[in-house]
Amino acid sequence: MVLILDIQYQLVILAILIALSAFFSAAEIALLSLGRISRHKMLKEKVKNSKMIAKLLDDPNRLLITILIGNNLVNVSASALATSIGIFLFGSLGIGIAVGVMTFLILLFGEILPKSYAVHNKEKFAIFAAKPIYTFQKIQSPLIRFMAAIINRFMDYYGLTDKEKTLVTEEEVLSAVTIGTEDGEIDPEEKELIHNVFEFDDTEVKEVMVPRINMCCLEKSMSLFDVLKFIDKTSFSRIPVYEETPDKIVGILYSKDLLKYVGQNVDSFNLKKILRPVIFVPETKKIDELLKEFKSAKIHIAMVVDEYGGITGLVTLEDLLEELVGEIYDETDVSKNMIRKKGKNTFIVDGESEIEDVERALKVKLASDDSDFETISGLVLETLGRVPLEGDVVELNKISISVETMDRQKIVSLKVTKK
Fold first, then answer.
1. Rounded mean pLDDT of 256-277?
2. What is the 3-state secondary structure (H, E, C) of the chain?
3. What is the reported pLDDT for 2?
4. What is the pLDDT of residue 334?
5. CA gyration radius for the chain?
């Protein structure tokens, strides 16, 4: 009778040890998979045990050692006890039986089930487990420090020491946004805006500027009548003014500055006297830096220069903002359909169309990520290696690109056909 009671007590102890194994396994998943954002949120909301969780996770290696010591301690104890019970009940066969039974029990109840539960309830279980784990860590502190020292020495020797991580990476945010869009929590427009924000500081001025060939400029000796005629035709409110050649920009005309000449003697007009200062920026300047410069200087336009000092284009505040929110149209803008479908697999494409827009419309990849061109005209020029003629055809990736219209050396339009 006494022996039966002893076995019953041992089985109860064995069950407790397996339960502790489950606890340590679940705690490992719950605590170590708790993201930084979740921890900060818990601290901010003053959730129970949140400070204790933060202390534990300040040193994740120390926490992992604590949990593994506890888990291995109870698993070894459970296996030894099960072997003892097996030998008592089945003799020499008990060792094999104990190994088989304990492997199954620890794997199922000590690993798979508790870890599966913790994956789906990590915050809830982390709150529950924090105090016991923290207390166990204090009790085992000498052993943990000893093992941590050995591990840190090993990691230092092999250059594996953890570097401080940021709160959240750009990739994590973009992945979360993509998942949110797929789940319907974030609108596609919101997703595009967030992506644009992250791409903003990687974009250079040359990618958003108005190229020199499309610039509209005034010559500084023009009469008031000619200037007004030009403004009426173009509807621009800020216009670069040059002397002799467009490479020698001397200032910017704000059309509102012409109001002072209303009712005045036209002969007194001197364009150069009313020009605003012009700033020049390199085409490799990041647009987030330029936006700060525009803001601090309270200006809306800058001339873009290459490494030799030649004018390559101009960039406006509107160009920068459009990189965030998309095309901005005012009452003077005419919406231009850059890519027009002319058949099942045929498109008429404006030469200035962004290569990404063309790829999106045709659902095909045309350029590599490290390509130097931004437009479909650039793709044609790079492929041909020369200025094309009307009728020239470029074949690539089951796409046929035919040059439809040229304006001297500028590609005006192309016909793109999917084969």
1. 82
2. CHHHHHHHHHHHHHHHHHHHHHHHHHHHHHHHCCCHHHHHHHHHCCCCCHHHHHHHHCCHHHHHHHHHHHHHHHHHHHHHHHHHHHHHHHHHHHHHHHHHHHHHHHHHHHHHHHHHHHHHCHHHHHHHHHHHHHHHHHHCHHHHHHHHHHHHHHHHHCCCCCCCCCCCCHHHHHHHHHHHHHCCCCCHHHHHHHHHHHHHCCCEHHHCCEEHHHCCCEECCCCHHHHHHHHHHHCCCEEEEEECEEEEEEEEEEHHHHHHHCCCCHHHCCHHHHCECCCEEECCCEHHHHHHHHHHHCCCEEEEECCCCCEEEEEEHHHHHHHHHCCCCCCCCCCCCCEEECCCCEEEEECCCEHHHHHHHHCCCCCCCCCCCCEHHHHHHHHHCCCCCCCCEEEECCEEEEEEEEECCEEEEEEEEEC
3. 40
4. 47
5. 35
Under the banding of pLDDT at 50, 70 and 90, the label for residue 9 is confident
Q: What order of strands is seen across the sheet that includes strand 399-407?
A: 339-341, 346-350, 410-418, 399-407, 393-396
Question: Residue 159 — φ and ψ, nearest 5°?
Answer: 65, 35
Going by their DSSP bridges, the two strands 311-316 and 346-350 should be labelled as unpaired
Confidence check: pLDDT of 163 > 60: no
pLDDT-derived band at 335, boundaries 50, 70, 90: very low
Domains for the chain: give ranges and CATH numbers.
2-157 (no CATH), 170-200 (no CATH), 205-325 (3.10.580.10), 339-418 (3.30.465.10)
Question: Is residue 281 pLDDT above 50, yes or no?
Answer: yes
Mean confidence (pLDDT) of the chain: 85
**Cα 96 from Cα 86, distance rounded (Å):** 8
Of the candidates 275, 265, 158, which has an alpha carbon nearest to the alpha carbon of residue 218? 275
Give the pLDDT band of residue 162 (cuts 50, 70, 90): low
The whole-number pLDDT of residue 312 equals 93
Q: For residues 419 and 389, which has the higher predicted lDDT (pLDDT)? A: 389
- Kindly give the interhelix angle for 60-90 and 141-157, rounded to the nearest 10 degrees: 120
Enter the tokens of residue 162.
């953890």
